[in-house]
Amino acid sequence: xxxxxxxxxxxxxxxxxxxxxxxxxxxxxxxxxxxxxxxxxxxxxxxxxxxxxxxxxxxxxxxxxxxxxxxxxxxxxxxxxxxxxxxxxxxxxxxxxxxxxxxxxxxxxxxxxxxxxxxxxxxxxxxxxxxxxxxxxxxxxxxxxxxxxxxxxxxxxxxxxxxxxxxxxxxxxxxxxxxxxxxxxxxxxxxxxxxxxxxxxxxxxxxxxxxxxxxxxxxxxxxxxxxxxxxxxxxxxxxxxxxxxxxxxxxxxxxxxxxxxxxxxxxxxxxxxxxxxxxxxxxxxxxxxxxxxxxxxxxxxxxxxxxxxxxxxxxxxxxxxxxxxxxxxxxxxxxxxxxxxxxxxxxxxxxxxxxxxxxxxxxxxxxxxxxxxxxxxxxxxxxxxxxxxxxxxxxxxxxxxxxxxxxxxxxxxxxxxxxxxxxxxxxxxxxxxxxxxxxxxxxxxxxxxxxx
Length: 452
Known about the structure:
It comes from Sphingomonas changbaiensis NBRC 104936. There is one protein chain. By secondary structure, the chain is an alpha+beta fold. Helices cover about 45% and strands about 15% of the residues. It has four domains: about 1-60, no CATH class; about 65-180, Porin chaperone SurA, peptide-binding domain (Triger factor/SurA peptide-binding fold); about 205-305, Chitinase A, domain 3; about 310-410, Chitinase A, domain 3, CATH 3.10.50. It has helices at about 20-30, 75-85, 95-120, 125-140, 145-155, 160-180, 185-200, 220-235, 240-245, 270-275, 330-345, 350-360, 375-385, 420-445; strands at about 65, 70, 205-215, 260, 285-290, 290-305, 315-320, 360-370, 395, 400-410, 450. Helix 4 crosses helix 6 (about 160-180) and helix 7 (about 185-200) packs across helix 14. The model is unreliable at about 1-40 and about 55-60 (pLDDT under 50).
């Protein structure tokens, strides 16, 4: 991100201490003339230097002027609030400081993208931004007004989210004009992929998420440390998608790092080796790749052109009980045991109704649940159940205990391979993404960024 930018007018925080250090050195020299001279480097520096004041190179005010456009501390804090909310608020204070710096870098990139689009006479109208904002609100099952209230509640604002929307729309429109028309994919390439898919029928495909962090030999150690901190934050409950959006320096950051469905051999060798052995829901990294390091997250797996049992669609009836406030662990255990014993008698969805009534359990039906959309811990268990059977109880003291009863099942048909149009679109997107990375790199290189 900014570490790759050629920055003009940049005064790193450490230089701000030079006047104080100079005064200190002069005072020491006057009061201790008997000290040995320091190394011969053309500077009059005493051997026993005493630094007055603390210099933390990682500490600086998160504000900047990018080619004349101002990024304020409020901008940074409101965007940071979106990440914290997406991670369930489970971000340690030390990690927040690092995230704050990364958010500033993202805002600098976003500003460069908007400026470049404007320079190419691409205008994103308020109406287009509001329409996208309304769609985001609907995804959160809120009206625009309710979304605005929610954003203010978490410390963000509609303006911050709309600014992010504007950046994404402007950059996509710019790529469509300046990059996409010059990307070509031949019919021979597409047919070659179709032939390879047919030959690879039954082979494993993976859907992985990636967070790519660029690095040079000089910054490799710091980048590895950052990658490990990100992985630890995700393991503690943070959202991989949220971290990918804010940290990843690949073009897939806009979609939460999702690389889509690929065969391991289509990935760089280092990533392919990890992807072949990873289980769904696990991470690997930091993995050294050309230009930096990557973190991989295994979203899903499947077999090429083969019916996947996890694509089965189930009709489920859920029975659940909750624990009132003040319930002790022993009381919760006893109640869960009673619930488990009662639900063992379920023999079909009809009897589930009677058990629910006897236990005072809440009952919910859903007849369009894909097995692969269930939590990983439940998938194998549900695949082993026949119609009419109930799962073992599962849950937590906070969420209560529940069971799932299989009321119906539609097994998947043999999978069909992607058609030529889909493959061509995927190839074009990959090539556009590669050129987009180079485009943004050039914008960073030429940027004039003044930190304040």
